[in-house]
Design a protein that fits this description.
The N and C termini lie far apart (about 35 Å). It contains 6 helices and 5 strands. It is an alpha/beta fold.
Amino acid sequence: MLDEQVLAVLARLEQEDRAEREAGLPPARRSRQVAPSTGRFLFALAASQAGIEILEIGGSRGYSSIWLASGARVLGGRLVSLEHDPDRCTAWRENAAAAGLEEWAELVEGDAHATLSATEDVFDLVFLDAEKADYEALFGLVRLCSSRERWSSRTTSSPMRRRSRRTPPRARPTRRSRA
């Protein structure tokens, strides 16, 4: 559901991205968000499955998170986003709240490698949007998490705890990884 509240935040983030690019900010200081057409694609993927569990690796300031969480809320899913940069985590939280998506989006702050190594959660959709040099290692960790989940009894103390699909989404405090 792309309501006016969500659309306003997306429009503001798109304007901020344009201004950063026009100002010539280096990539490390920009939001480096996906294109709006990619956002719409992510929304369609997320909105198409009831109770979808989404993992986003590299949440930045929350632009793609807003698309994914908006899609997830259509049929009662949720998004877990991983981000390590404290300033971007603050912006992510502010943007998710401004879009009214706190109930469907959760931020896990910390190193994605450590967080993924410690989790036994499994996800229906994984959006890998981290540093390109880390893709191969992160992809391997996501596959390992998926493989471990098939055999676990869910008794781990993971920083990401998967809710039952029968449990309706609810607002929860943001957790920090133990990295």
